[in-house]
Amino acid sequence: MQGSCYKLFTKAKSWNSAKSACEALGAKLVVLNSLAENQAVGEKITGGQGTYIGLYRSPKDKSRWLWLDQSRATHTHWDSGEPNNVGGSEDCVHMRSKSSGYEWNDLPCNNVYHVPYVCETSGKSGSVILYIAFVQPKARAKRSQHISTTYPNIAAPTFASSG
Ligand code: MFU
Ligand code: CA
Question: Which residue is closest in CA terms to ligand 1's atom 10?
Fold first, then answer.
């Protein structure tokens, strides 16, 4: 999505762990709102294992799929024969690599398959930086301090110019 920042993590994890790892960065497992975005993210995949994406089976209606931003999947890109729900426990989704056209496969969410993953941050500016400046009137020197909190793996902020 416009304004989003994406990062591929090549250290393979389960879907559940990948989800947590993205959340710890203030991000989400990637949400793919269009085939163009699917393609763009797919092209970043470096290995044959593909990547986990932020799509999972609705617990309420097992025939539906939900993105981690809670939107219903409006387009899908399943590989042929998928989703096949092997063992009745394939509730999470993996994007296959280029040789499979970046198409999707359902896989278990738990520890059975470890795969690289892509995190996405949405929003216009990534880092949140809070500056607190103050001046002590009678101090020997003016002092100012800034407190910055930056989140790794998020694009540097952009500043609009005015005038
Ligand atoms: C396919 C996939 C499964 C799993 C298995 C090894 O089933 O649909 O999700 O990857 O291969 C035959
Ligand atoms: Ca499957």
Answer: 107
Q: How far is the CA of 41 from the centre of ligand 1 (A)?
A: 22
Name the domain count of the chain. Answer: 1
Residue-wise pLDDT for 71-123, tens only, equals 989 889 999 999 999 999 999 999 999 999 999 999 999 999 999 999 999 86
For residue 56, tell me if it sits in a domain.
yes
Tens digits of per-residue pLDDT, 51-81? Answer: 999 999 999 999 999 999 999 898 899 999 9
Work out which ligand 1 atom sits closest to the CA atom of 113: 10
Pair 87, 81: CB distance under 8 Å: no
Query: If phi over 0 gives left and psi between -120 and 50 gives alpha, with beta otherwise, what is residue 96?
Result: beta
Q: How far apart are the C-alpha atoms of 15 and 53, rounded to whole Å?
A: 8
Collect residues with CB below 5 Å from ion ligand 2.
84, 90, 105-106
pTM of the model: 0.77
Q: Which CATH number covers residue 68?
A: 3.10.100.10
